[in-house]
Write a structure and sequence with these properties.
2 strands; MetI-like fold; mainly alpha; two-stranded antiparallel ribbon
């Protein structure tokens, strides 16, 4: 018959009671970090996001020209916007630019991202060159393309057989095409980078099993890669939607809302109301409307795609 030692008794007691023994170290549970860890981010978000949003909501129901004190105006700003044909047109233009951006950028980003995730020769060098536009500011890119597309000294003036009179920004179709092209040129690298990381996370065993079954690269892309990128596609599209609805810098530098009001989207119209007409009440109403539209579109996108349920794409692996 064996006799338990004091140390063994202490360990056994700790195991049964869930408390440390007399001679052992206190057990430290691993839980979620305290609120103190999130306090800096919460304060930053509150000061630079929530507070301005609350002020915009208040100003949307007031009259204010930037001087003096705001005066309560009720629903006056909202009723004027609903009756403003330029506002209605700007909202549709915002949605159109957003849809065109998603339709054009998504397939290009997926294809380039999947390619960049491979091990092709010179892939790293080509990827680095392709990501250069992502490092430039929107203003620099817009000034660059405004010079390149100048009808008198730019590329269109040297290729009139292709561009006609060369004034691409002189028609609504041409101006919208330029805006979509410039946005695609600059922001596709960002979404390509997102897809590159997601494509590299796809388990190699899936492709090996597909090769054994005789599936080629095209079938592997449509039956393995795309399903595995489902959640990434939704994330990328939400970023495109928010970015498309708030496009401002490119329009300000390239078209200034022209010709006429043919490229005046809601963000640029908000700028005109605030800093040209000094109608900060109407501008705040437009800003709040943009927030509501962007939130609504994003929620619809999340709901329709099932992204809110976040089903795993790794089942069975």
């Amino acid at each position: 018959m064996t006799t338990a030692t004091p140390a063994a008794t202490a360990v056994d007691g700790a195991a049964k009671t869930g408390r440390p023994g007399r001679r052992g170290r206190p057990a430290t549970g691993v839980g979620r970090p305290g609120f103190a860890w999130a306090a800096p981010a919460a304060v930053f978000f509150g000061l630079f996001a929530l507070v301005p949003l609350v002020l915009v909501v208040v100003l949307s129901f007031a009259r204010w020209n930037g001087l003096g004190s705001p005066e309560f105006a009720g629903l006056e700003n909202w009723s004027r916007l609903l009756d403003d044909p330029v506002m209605v047109k700007s909202l549709w233009l915002s949605l159109l630019l957003t849809v065109l951006g998603v339709v054009v950028q998504t397939p290009i980003s997926i294809l380039l991202g999947v390619w960049a995730a491979g091990r092709q020769r010179n892939r790293a060098v080509l990827s680095a060159v392709y990501f250069v536009p992502l490092l430039l500011s929107i203003t620099a890119v817009s000034v660059l393309w405004r010079a390149v597309l100048d009808p008198n000294f730019g590329i269109p003036s040297q290729a009139r057989w292709l561009f006609g009179d060369g004034n691409l920004l002189g028609t609504q179709a041409g101006a919208l095409g330029v805006l979509v092209f410039v946005s695609t040129w600059q922001f596709t690298p960002l979404h390509t980078l997102i897809y590159q990381g997601a494509a590299r996370a796809v388990p190699e065993v899936l492709y090996q099993a597909a090769q054994i079954d005789g599936a080629g690269r095209v079938r592997q892309f449509f039956h393995i890669t795309l399903p595995q990128l489902r959640n990434t596609i939704v994330t990328s599209m939400i970023l495109m939607v928010v970015g498309g609805l708030t496009t401002f810098d490119t329009i300000l530098i390239l078209t200034q809302g022209g010709p006429g009001t043919d490229t005046t989207n809601s963000a640029y119209y908000m700028y005109q109301k605030a800093f040209k007409s000094f109608d900060f009440g109407a501008a705040s109403a437009i800003a709040l409307l943009l927030v509501l539209v962007a939130t609504l579109v994003s929620l619809i996108l999340v709901r329709l795609t099932g992204y809110d349920r976040m089903r795993s794409t790794m089942e069975g692996v």
